[in-house]
Design goal:
Elements lengths: L14 H12 L17 E3 L11 H14 L14 H14 L3 E5 L2 H12 L4 E6 L4 H10 L2 E5 L4 H9 L5 E7 L11 H10 L3 E5 L14 H4 L8 E6 L9 E5 L1 H10 L1 H4 L6 H16 L2 H19 L3 E2 L6 E7 L1 H13 L2 E6 L9 E6 L6 H12 L2 H5 L1
Parallel strand pairs: 1-11, 3-4, 3-5, 5-6, 6-7
Antiparallel strand pairs: 2-8, 7-8, 9-10, 10-12, 11-12
Helix pairs in contact: 2-11, 3-11, 4-5, 4-9, 6-7, 12-14
Bound molecules: pyridoxal-5'-phosphate (PLP).
Pyridoxal-5'-phosphate binds next to helix 4.
Length: about 400
């Protein structure tokens, strides 16, 4: 059917988006993309998730280039069709070995690993108990799962226990970040596992901010809690932070891997992770094995940064890993503080609603293993320039 361009004009379908954009602007919640020049913008980067400083490591970038030259620029298809190369298999074996899990399955992003794992391992007939501060990808995964979802207060193990004991479904799963992405605090994994196990529930743990930073030589928080071999724990994590690449992974029992290959929709209906990203992650994992000083240095730098945040009059978190935050409260003030730091040569992250609850706007600084004493004194100067505003 052809459309008559001179036909009657209805309501402008874009008007409501212009109105909503103006409202976001007024509330200080407008977001803008800023293109990064390839050689860097001269600012010290404390906004990225490159915790170990590996994204530009020549061993990692060379491996990415070699993988693209050998396997092509793209994976060419779903993992189940043509998208699994020998490199994907090698990466899965290496990730399973490093994390102490029997099996691993790589996804094309951490977001999709969470969607795939939570949706495929739960569903109608399952109750998911989810921490209120979980990452958006876990929140979205819960929504997609069509399971009954109970959101419990942050870090409240007793509430998790209650939700599991009062559920009216046969199956259950407890879902949590291990290191929370904004506040940088640590989930009580041993207690959660005890409760989950008592109620016959799976424990699904997102280790995005823990892999490469905490646990023995960066093996993550589940490993640190002595739970790496627990068959009822499923771990998801990303290749896009400590490993300096892109992609996501689920590690756990072989039964979990098999379930995800057969029923994980974000695995089945998605093109496999690009070979360059696979090669880079594999090389980064080798660097991490060879250079265990990196996780320790990232954590030391996080403690130093938290001290500088406190010195600037902001309320810092107690960093469990490399995420350091300083509460500002008002979104306009948080954006202004971020701009002030940039003008002083330091790029920091700024989190506003809906990434954080109303009134929770904050600066987020990510510690890196490769920060020098000179870098830290540059941060000190930048944060000191906020002190009058923060104190007022
Ligand atoms: C806790 C957490 N989980 C999952 C993700 C998603 O990972 P990716 O960016 O690789 O999709 C992120 C990333 O920002 C994260 O912070």
């Amino acid at each position: 059917m052809s459309i008559d361009p001179s036909g009657p004009i209805g309501a402008d379908p874009l008007e409501r988006f212009r109105v909503a954009a103006a409202e976001r602007e007024r509330a200080g919640l407008h977001r803008a993309l800023r293109a990064r020049p390839s050689g860097g913008d001269g600012l010290l980067d404390l906004a990225s998730n490159d915790y170990l400083g590996l994204t530009r490591d020549p061993r990692v970038t060379r491996a990415a280039a070699d993988a693209a030259l050998s396997w092509g620029a793209g994976a060419t298809g779903s993992r189940l069709v043509t998208g699994t190369t020998a490199l994907h298999t090698a990466l899965e074996e290496s990730l399973a070995d490093f994390t102490g899990a029997p099996a691993a399955l790589v996804f094309s992003s951490g977001y999709l690993a969470n969607l795939g794992a939570v949706a495929a391992l739960t569903g109608p007939g399952t109750t998911i108990v989810s921490d209120a501060a979980n990452h958006a990808s876990l929140v979205d995964a819960c929504r997609l799962s069509r399971a009954a979802v109970v959101v419990t207060p942050h870090l409240d193990v007793a509430a998790v226990d209650r939700a599991l004991s009062t559920r009216d479904t046969e199956h259950a799963a407890v879902v949590t970040d291990s290191v929370f992405s904004v506040d940088g605090d640590l989930a009580p994994l041993a207690a959660l596992h005890e409760v989950a196990r008592r109620h016959g529930a799976l424990l699904i743990v997102d280790e995005a901010h823990a892999l490469g930073v905490i646990g023995p030589d960066g093996r993550g928080a589940v490993h640190a809690a002595g739970l790496a071999g627990a068959p009822d724990i499923v771990r998801t994590t990303v290749l896009s932070k400590s490993l300096g690449s892109q992609g996501g992974v689920v590690v756990g029992a072989p039964e979990i891997r098999a379930a995800l290959i057969d029923t994980g929709r974000s695995f089945i209906f998605d093109t496999g992770l690009a070979p360059a990203a696979v090669g880079a992650a594999l090389a980064a994992l080798d660097v991490l094995r060879d250079e265990p000083w990196r996780p320790a240095r990232a954590r030391e730098n996080a403690v130093a940064l938290a001290g500088l945040v406190a010195g600037a009059g902001l309320v810092p978190n107690v960093p469990a890993a490399a995420v350091v935050s300083g509460l500002v409260g008002d979104p306009h003030a948080a954006v202004a503080a971020q701009a002030r730091c940039a003008s002083m040569g330091v790029r920091v992250g700024c989190f506003r609603p809906p990434s954080v609850p109303p009134g929770g706007s904050c600066l987020r600084l990510t510690a890196r293993a490769d920060l020098t004493a000179a870098d830290l004194s540059r941060v000190e100067n930048a944060l000191a320039s906020l002190a009058p505003a923060a104190a007022s």
